[in-house]
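User: I'm putting together notes for a lab meeting next week and I want to include a structural view of one of the chains we've been expressing. I don't have a solved structure, so I'd like a prediction I can at least talk through. The sequence is below, exactly as it appears in our construct file.
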Amino acid sequence: MPNSFDSLSREDILQHNLVLHENTAEQYDQIHYYLRNRFEQRCLWQDLRLIHRRLECAANGPIRYLDLGCGTGNLTLKLLSLGGCVIGVDLAPRMIDVLTQKVAAAGFAADFRGFIGSADDLLTLEKTHASLRDVQVVCISSVLHHLFRWETPFEQLTELCPSLRLAYVTHEPCSRASLTPPHAISRAYNRGLRMFDLLWSRTIRHPKEAPADDPVADYHAFKDGIDESQIAEMLSASGFREKLIHRRYNMRRTTQASILDNVVCRVLRNDIFPITMFTLAMMRGSAENGQT
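Assistant: Thanks for the context. Below is the predicted structure for the 292-residue chain, given as structure tokens.
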């Protein structure tokens, strides 16, 4: 790990991400098992069903989604099962291969297209894939903190996807500056919950410790986090003024710890960098008059 992130270039970060995700594609779901605990999955399903319902009543055909940084399909497979058509983009070819196999096994091959590319270089994708112009929803999950400039996708999306009606961002670490310092009681609670979460995941759910993430690949997760208020401002300036979903939660390894921290004992939950995450969904239109 470098002493400072300041000397890193975009190419450095892309290369670290490519090597990491190429080498772990087949084991990605096991390494990142916490993304699929029942609490996280319930939240995802609730969000995606809400988004799909809001758009399908006005759609003239299948809703077209762009899963930016699709990985092994945590979002893509859900969107396909809801009846959408999905374009998946990922930097690592092996990730696309794994996802393509999953999609075929689930019987959704006709509604999915996978492309290799970086989430912060949509201009290159647009030159060869005109279907981006028909995208109505962009979904970004656990991607922005891997980018050199997390703002870049939002600067490009509305130009390259003129049919875009909704942007959904989830599982991104909140910015350091926005986190509230914990009180003594919440610090003690967090230490106890963290111990329970580790013991439960190792003993019951995941006996072997997963390999550590590459801190360069997880660029903003080890640096500053992501500012959801700035994302909201950028989207609002592009006409996305209805905030459909906005919440914060703590990422925990197990379902039990996730529910304790985010539901049962929410009053004791404290902000912790980088495990305090946010979810944000904004629709094109006006929050004041309800038009979309």
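A couple of points you could mention at the meeting. DSSP finds ten helices and seven strands in the chain. Confidence is low (pLDDT under 50) at residues 287-292.

User: Perfect, that's what I needed.
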